[in-house]
């Protein structure tokens, strides 16, 4: 039975690894804001069908307000950073900036505890940041001039992805401290969709044009998004969470590979070096704190 739940968790990781590329494709079809609003609306509907609507009494109002605001902010920043990227290659670079959140989550958790951090934590976090810089540098790798040139070409999307990573790390720590067996994900998805529709109607966003291809991409992306959360929700019940947690740290590698395939983008060797640095840095953060807690 444990193997079954663990398999669900691995499928969730696979779904999430495909999701960033599909989010970009939806944005190309419907526009960054309209595409994101449609994506979270359809995903919310699917989550309601699969998981139902959680009862408000299972959560504190403080968590619903603070946690909900953090969740909605993160999802909007991530979706718009991918949608407003100048190119598919830039959207993949932005997605790697987003993957700073695992290292930041561990860092914030240590800072928020009374335990003295292992000194190895900081080199691990630095490695993750260096890896992101390496990917943004493109073919040149860790070239300050090239990194600055690529970031300044569209600084807003990189800023949104970085701020989003910080917000998600804070959200993860707040949610963990809640220590509730219930998930408010469906409520937060509905709130995200509503916020995006408000933005869509208050701005001069491009009109929505539905075609067979764009509709299929929308349904696939929504299925991946809702399916990932639904499968993970089941996996945490009886799966091998130590194994799944370890595997989840390899998501940047898997996501980059699948995004390259789905979007038809050839990623240079320097980019892959940076991705592995991000992955190793995140794994290092988790490992040094895991050893300390075990001790």
Automatic annotation (TrEMBL):
<protein>
    <submittedName>
        <fullName>Aromatic amino acid exporter</fullName>
    </submittedName>
</protein>
<dbReference type="GO" id="GO:0016020">
    <property type="term" value="C:membrane"/>
</dbReference>
<keyword id="KW-0812">Transmembrane</keyword>
<feature type="transmembrane region" description="Helical">
    <location>
        <begin position="208"/>
        <end position="231"/>
    </location>
</feature>
<dbReference type="Pfam" id="PF00892">
    <property type="entry name" value="EamA"/>
</dbReference>
<feature type="transmembrane region" description="Helical">
    <location>
        <begin position="63"/>
        <end position="85"/>
    </location>
</feature>
<keyword id="KW-1133">Transmembrane helix</keyword>
<feature type="transmembrane region" description="Helical">
    <location>
        <begin position="156"/>
        <end position="172"/>
    </location>
</feature>
<keyword id="KW-0472">Membrane</keyword>
<feature type="transmembrane region" description="Helical">
    <location>
        <begin position="184"/>
        <end position="202"/>
    </location>
</feature>
<dbReference type="InterPro" id="IPR000620">
    <property type="entry name" value="EamA_dom"/>
</dbReference>
<feature type="transmembrane region" description="Helical">
    <location>
        <begin position="270"/>
        <end position="289"/>
    </location>
</feature>
<feature type="domain" description="EamA">
    <location>
        <begin position="6"/>
        <end position="136"/>
    </location>
</feature>
<feature type="transmembrane region" description="Helical">
    <location>
        <begin position="37"/>
        <end position="56"/>
    </location>
</feature>
<feature type="transmembrane region" description="Helical">
    <location>
        <begin position="119"/>
        <end position="136"/>
    </location>
</feature>
<feature type="domain" description="EamA">
    <location>
        <begin position="159"/>
        <end position="283"/>
    </location>
</feature>
<feature type="transmembrane region" description="Helical">
    <location>
        <begin position="243"/>
        <end position="264"/>
    </location>
</feature>
<feature type="transmembrane region" description="Helical">
    <location>
        <begin position="91"/>
        <end position="112"/>
    </location>
</feature>
């Amino acid at each position: 039975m444990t193997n079954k739940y663990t398999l669900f968790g691995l499928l969730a990781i696979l779904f999430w690894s495909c999701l960033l590329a599909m989010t970009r494709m939806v944005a190309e079809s419907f526009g960054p804001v309209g595409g994101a609003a449609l994506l979270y609306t359809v995903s919310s509907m699917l989550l309601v069908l699969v998981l139902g609507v959680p009862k408000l009494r299972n959560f504190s109002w403080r968590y619903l307000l603070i946690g909900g605001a953090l969740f909605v902010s993160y999802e909007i920043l991530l979706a718009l950073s991918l949608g407003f990227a100048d190119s598919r290659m830039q959207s993949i670079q932005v997605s790697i900036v987003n993957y700073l959140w695992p290292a930041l989550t561990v860092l914030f958790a240590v800072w928020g505890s009374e335990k003295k951090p292992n000194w190895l934590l900081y080199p691990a976090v630095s490695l993750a940041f260096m890896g992101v810089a390496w990917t943004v540098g493109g073919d040149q790798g860790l070239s300050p001039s090239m990194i600055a040139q690529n970031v300044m070409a569209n600084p807003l999307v990189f800023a949104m992805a970085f701020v989003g990573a910080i917000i998600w790390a804070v959200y993860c720590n707040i949610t963990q401290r809640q220590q509730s067996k219930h998930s408010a994900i469906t409520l937060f998805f509905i709130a995200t969709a509503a916020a995006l529709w408000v933005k869509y109607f208050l701005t001069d966003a491009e009109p929505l044009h539905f075609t067979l291809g764009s509709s299929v991409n929308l349904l696939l992306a929504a299925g991946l998004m809702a399916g990932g959360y639904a499968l993970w929700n089941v996996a945490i019940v009886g799966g091998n969470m130590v194994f799944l947690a370890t595997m989840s740290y390899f998501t940047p590698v898997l996501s980059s590979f699948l995004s390259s395939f789905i979007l038809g983008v050839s990623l240079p060797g320097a980019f892959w070096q940076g991705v592995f640095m991000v992955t190793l840095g995140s794994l290092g953060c988790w490992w040094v704190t895991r050893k300390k807690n075990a001790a």
